[in-house]
Design brief:
The protein is α/β, with parallel strands linked by helices. The chain has one domain: RutC-like (60s Ribosomal Protein L30, Chain: A, 2-Layer Sandwich), CATH 3.30.1330. 30% of the residues lie in helices and 28% in strands. The protein has 3 helices and 7 strands. A hairpin with a 2-residue loop joins strand 1 (29-32) and strand 2 (35-42). The chain is globular and about 40 Å long. 41% of the residues are buried.
Length: 155
């Protein structure tokens, strides 16, 4: 039976899929004490296809980027579930770090990352409000438009 957080996600037509496996020499998450650090998740959909590919400000719109960031957040939550077995064990979303594949003059990275932030608040309510960093970068793996990492306080 799905917990409260997964029920909130289901109300938004989001069903968690199996957590993506790492593509290099790292682990998908590390727990130390009551903190869970989740490695950066690119914007792959459940079928392994990029939700948005390319650069924001050079072919990828803010709306497409926000959808990609939301997809990254879904992948983060899939990793959290793999680590804990139950999203209801999340005490708080502490921090998200977002990397936006950006054209040199693209300045709206924060608007793009709202796609991930909004999902965390929708899933966890006030516990989903978090600190955040958004950084524009020259490239990302697979030419993904967005990558998001997260830190979660867990029970």
């Amino acid at each position: 039976m799905a917990g409260t957080v997964e029920q909130k996600l289901a109300e938004q037509c989001i069903k968690l899929h199996d957590a993506p496996t790492p593509v290099a020499n790292y682990v998908p998450f590390v727990r130390t004490g009551n903190l869970l650090f989740v490695s950066g998740q690119v914007c792959f959909d459940p079928a392994g296809k990029l939700i948005a590919k390319g650069k924001l400000g050079a072919g990828v719109s803010i709306e497409e980027g926000a959808a990609a960031a939301r997809g990254c957040a879904v992948n983060l939550l899939a990793q959290v579930k793999a680590a804990l077995g139950d999203l209801d064990k999340v005490v708080r979303v502490v921090r998200l770090g977002g990397f936006i594949n950006s054209a040199p003059d693209f300045l709206d990275g924060p608007k793009v990352l709202n796609g991930a932030s909004d999902l965390m608040v929708a899933a966890f309510g006030d516990k989903g409000r978090h600190a955040r960093t958004t950084v524009g970068v020259a490239s990302l793996p697979a030419d993904a438009a967005v990558e998001v990492e997260g830190v979660f306080e867990v029970a």
